[in-house]
Design brief:
InterPro entries: CAP_dom, CAP_sf. Keywords: Membrane, Transmembrane, Transmembrane helix. It holds the Pfam family CAP. It is built from six helices and five strands, in the order H-E-H-E-H-H-E-H-H-E-E. The chain has 254 residues and is an alpha+beta fold. It has a domain of 123 residues: Pathogenesis-related Protein p14a (3-Layer(aba) Sandwich). The chain has a five-stranded mixed beta sheet, sandwiched between helices. A hairpin with a 4-residue loop joins strand 4 and strand 5. It is elongated. The chain starts with a helix and ends with a strand.
């Protein structure tokens, strides 16, 4: 009996030590797994956030990409042309002669000086053309080439559409917006009618292209713009350009 008790105590102590060791080892394993999982979650989140920031900065710091937008609308009421009548007033000069009184004694008087020569006639100077008129005319030429290939009649340049288009390009450049509708809510057809053209049809605008060839390439590769350019129902066109931002406007009419 005396030998059995110490032996049981030794076995019990060994079991307690083994159990404690297993518990400690299990806790250490759980801590290592938790640390590994936490690192695995944190690293991709941080890298993904930085990558998104880099992408946003690159997109914002690059050169401005060419953009374009098209809009078409139904034609308005029949056009009303207001005839401008100019009246010229002519002044008639009447010469009155006073009979000279004769007397028995006549005295010689000096002859009057000759009248001054008339000023030389001046040739009226033509108003200076828009500095961008050449590029605008090139756009019209390219438009009519595309229409000829599609079997449509050539568009005729209308000064009222040209004025409306140029005014819109300049307005977008000066007030830094890019839209068919002004910040006050004036639509493209309202702008065209305000310029005196009563049958607006459609409008194309573009931004960033630095030549007529470049902007036409952008428009012809966009279905909406191409549809406006090749619409055989349209008969007139006006093109405007402001090189402060390279803002283009095409206005079409019936």
């Amino acid at each position: 009996m005396s030998d059995t008790r110490p032996r049981r105590a030794t076995i019990k102590a060994s079991l307690v030590a083994l159990t404690a060791g297993a518990i400690i080892a299990g806790v250490a394993t759980m801590l290592n797994q938790a640390t590994t999982e936490r690192r695995g979650l944190e690293v991709p989140t941080v890298e993904g956030y930085n990558a998104a920031n880099n992408q946003a900065r690159q997109a914002g710091s690059g050169t401005a990409t060419a953009d374009a937008t098209a809009l078409s609308g139904a034609g308005g009421a029949s056009s009303s042309t207001s005839a401008t009548s100019s009246s010229s007033a002519s002044s008639s000069s009447s010469a009155s002669s006073t009979p000279a009184s004769t007397s028995s004694q006549t005295s010689e008087q000096p002859a009057p000086p000759p009248p001054p020569p008339p000023p030389p006639a001046t040739t009226p100077q033509a108003p200076p053309s828009s500095p961008n008129a050449g590029e605008a005319a090139k756009v019209v030429q390219l438009v009519n080439q595309e229409r000829q290939d599609a079997g449509c009649d050539a568009l005729k340049v209308d000064s009222r559409l040209t004025n409306a288009a140029q005014a819109h390009s300049t307005d977008m450049a000066q007030r830094n917006y890019f839209d068919h509708t002004t910040p006050e809510g004036v639509t493209f057809d309202q702008r065209i009618r305000a310029a005196g053209y009563q049958q607006p049809a459609a409008e194309n605008i573009a931004k960033g292209q630095r030549s007529a060839d470049a902007v036409m390439n952008s428009w012809m590769n966009s279905s909406g713009h191409r549809r406006n350019i090749l619409n055989c129902a349209y008969s007139t066109i006006g093109v405007g350009l402001d090189t402060n931002g390279w803002l283009w406007t095409q206005d079409f009419g019936f």
